[in-house]
Automatic annotation (TrEMBL):
This is Stage II sporulation protein M. The keyword Ribonucleoprotein does not apply. Keywords: Membrane, Transmembrane, Transmembrane helix. PANTHER family: SLR1478 PROTEIN (PTHR35337). The keyword Iron does not apply. It comes from the Bacteria. The chain crosses the membrane at residues 100-120, 165-185, 192-214, 220-242, 254-273, 285-304.
Amino acid sequence: MDLDAYTAARSADWEELSRLAKKRRLDGAEADRLIDLYQSSAADLSAIQTSAGSTAVGDRLSLALSSARLRFTGAGANLFAQLPRFFVLQLPAALYRLRWIVLAVAAVTIVVATLYALWITGNPEVLRNLGSDANLRRYVEHEFIDYYSNNPAASFAGQVWTNNAWIAAQCIAFGITGLYVPYVLLQNAIGVGTAAGVMFAYGRGDVMFSYILPHGLLELTSVFVAAAAGLRIFWAWIAPGARTRGQALAEDGRALFTVAVGCAISLFVSGLIEGFVTPSPLPVWAKIGIGALALAAFLAYMLVLGRRAVRSGETGDLTEFEAGARRIVAG
């Protein structure tokens, strides 16, 4: 397709569509004309995406079609109508499609962190390079624990949530580079492995687990999901399959933006646990139990509800607008 020639031939109808969609009041003839233009322009968008992939022309047409569609459904009603579908179908389906990558990311991180911890505990020279005996003892006996209670619980929860959500968003946004996600995972594994190595070397491994597990179960899983989403975007660019690279990045990018929203929610929950449960005087078994229940709920949402959503035909790839446009074209 010659995109410039196609645009020149169809631009008048697209401009009329945009004008009618923005008009405050429509008479009967104008409403009929808007519907006709919507159907023909949806077909135009499908043709552009099929032949040219993601383009600036297609993006502008998408916006015009979205505005026109709101004239049929109403903005408020459409938004609230989509919330159940988003949480029951789109989000769990997008999470489910990442399950094997998440498992691989988790396994690699655990292996690296474990090897690093064993290296530190098995080599006194390495331990000494991390600090003096007095400094390390202060860390394992005071600083590690005090970190969770130095600030008010609500403030601390908000701080760790925004920090972790920012890291997760970066993993997804910069995943296309192919380097950022492995770097973040390596740094995270080294950090956990170093803390574990020092705590175990001074006989305080039980303290570490009692303070890490309550919130860390859900927090680390959420980071693994964000990392898996970033890696999937990178793979869509490397191996797009039958799609063009632009189409692959656009489709997977939209679905994985949904994952970013899900990670923000799960990290908010883990932040609340880290702020209010981890430093609390509750018994260790109760704190870890709360963290385990939060993780179990997340995994059930991702695997059970996600599997059901995928089996129902939800792909997590298409926006509601595009799905509606294609149904109109098909009909």
